[in-house]
Amino acid sequence: MSWIFKIAATIIIVLGHVALSGSSNPILSSINLPIAFLVLSIRLFDFPFKLAFALLAGFILDVYSNLPFGSFMITFFLISISLDVLFYNFFTDRSLYSILVLSLIGITIYNFSFILILSGSYLLGFSDFLVNQNYIWNYLLQLLVNGLVIAIGFYLSNRLLKFK
Amino acid sequence: MLDKILKYSLYGLTVIIVAAFLHYVGWLRPVENLLIKGLSPLQGSASEASRFGRGFYERWLKKRDLLKENEELKNKLTQAAIDDSYLKSLQEENELLKRELNFVEESRLKFVSAKIITGVSDPFTRSVVINRGKKDGLEKGLAVVADQGILVGKVSEVYDDFSKVILLNDNSSKVAATVQNLDHTVGMVEGQYGLSFSMTNIPQNQNIKEGDKVVTSGLEGKIPKNLLIAEVESVKSIESEIFKTAILKPIISLDNLSYVEIIIP
Fold this sequence. Notes:
The complex is a heterodimer. Chain A has one domain (2-163). Chain A is 79% helix and 0% strand. Chain A has 7 helices and no strands. In chain A, helix 3 (33-40) crosses helix 6 and helix 5 runs antiparallel to helix 6 (96-123). By secondary structure, chain B is α+β, with helices and mostly antiparallel strands. Chain B folds into 3 domains: 2-60, no CATH class; 62-100; 108-265, Rod shape-determining protein MreC, domain 2 (Thrombin, subunit H, Beta Barrel). Chain B has 3 helices and 12 strands. In chain B, the strands form 2 sheets. Chain B has a 6-stranded antiparallel β-barrel. In chain B, strand 10 (228-236) and strand 11 (243-250) form a beta hairpin. The longest helix of chain B has 35 residues, at 66-100. Chain B is globular. The termini of chain B are far apart. Chains A and B meet through helix 1, helix 4 and helix 5 of A and helix 1, helix 2 and strand 2 of B.
């Protein structure tokens, strides 16, 4: 039964992410719930589950999005692998600062991956894209907002683990 | 540990390649349709909640401006009533002339109402998902309008029960348009990376000014002519170039859409 709850949790996170992305409020639309979950769950779940989450969340977002199919799946796939490798080999102290650095890395990989995918799509003539001042400000806002969300999530998860 | 990560990564990569392949050959379409259908009640509720929260905040901010706007609108309404009576007399004259010359009456357009299930889901495109699809007669390229016939986008992908719509400010959006000026200038309305849209390929010798209305030209087979698109906000002209560009101001906000209509020719 636990896999049903895991799938339901994945769907709820993705739907929440889509609802927030559609908001015209720049702060709310900067929150990236799937990445926040990947970062916070890094010490709670094993790699196969995190990978399955990344692929399922990416698949649902690819279906909803107008970007080349597979963009979200590839992006979340890269993020889940990178975070795991870094967490178990470099940021082993599991402190808030490690989690915050991992969140910055996750958001950066998210943006960089899409820029690469859209560059490829542009070279093949499928679409246009633009990285300008607005995009850079949006990226910085994503770092700040998601860092805050993850810090709050880290604090709450620590409290929950203590009660357990 | 690294071996385990590598092993599962290979599985993951295989899943991604297979899923992408199945999507592009069309075999995954029933699964995608079922997924959107299954999630649409939840997604619709989540989007409504997001819109409500945003709407509440915006209404609170705009409250103080309502009285002033109300007064301006009253004055405009009076003027509109005067214009309307003149237009009605012109319409009657037009009908009479058509009858006199035995003109064939233009076919009425068919509208299909749709609800927006999800808003924009990624930061790079401006597309939404609506709850109408092939079963309702939708096809790729149909015009999507809101608020009494203002063009807001085009259908980009159609499933059995759902469709994706790219909005006018998406950078892949292109609509053939005409300016309602003396020259009846023809050009292309293009989205500007999710921010706004502009009209391009306007010859330098065409006279366009701020406030001119831009409508569809009807040159695209599936989009009827004379659908209102936007208003000219400013004109960018460089003497050394063949064409100039008009920056357009939307008539309605593309961020607050809940219901739209699709025109089936």
